[in-house]
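Second attempt. The first submission of Beta-phosphoglucomutase had a stray character pasted in from the spreadsheet, which I only caught after the job came back as garbage. Lesson logged: always re-copy from the clean sequence file. Corrected sequence (240 aa) follows.
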Amino acid sequence: MLMVWTVKLQMKSKFSRWKMIKGIIFDLDGVITDTAKLHYKAWKEIVNELGIDYSKEENEKLRGLPRRDTLLAIFELKKFKHNFDDQKINELCTKKNELYLSYLKKYINKDSLLEGIEQFLKDLKKDKIKIAIASSSLNAPLILEKLGVINYFDVIVNPVEVKKGKPAPDIFLLAQEQLKLKKEECVGIEDAVVGVEALNKANIKSIAITNGNNNLFQKATLLVQDTSKLIWDLIKPILF
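This time the job returned cleanly.
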């Protein structure tokens, strides 16, 4: 029988010393909804025009990176030689975002919420837990609006306001600051390795949505198999 969640053994002794959790900081893609296939579809179209063959497996390796960093990482991954200046890079990123937005408007709606997420948000609100989104996506407000859950969130961090994207800790530190809470009063939820790395650098506890890939998230505080197992009544006794 698969475990619903796994607590890192070396962290167990620390739970009793944690202060009461007052805020949850969510990543967006892969935690609230899954737009990865739409990102991939848009990136594939952009780089195919440059003669680059780009696979889903390669796209998975770059999840969680900001838009510009993703494009440059694709170039590096595929050993694509170019002499593009900043203007050209920005044009490609803008074109990708326009494609992605067109896919969002066509495919994303309330039914696109991942299983268990709306109930989890309701339970957090019932317990007066503050909720934030810390996503590298500039489209987070639009996505949350289309999903019908934007009113659950007290803070939606604008990624433009941070100097460095994940795996740097900046966006989580800004979320914590905007929630007006201490680091030890917050927990972040991520499905990307770079996101967990960012939380660790921020000294904020982490819950990793592993989708069965527990071995990739050994540095997370708490491992959850998928969002359907993200059950507040089960997690709350561990955190408090």
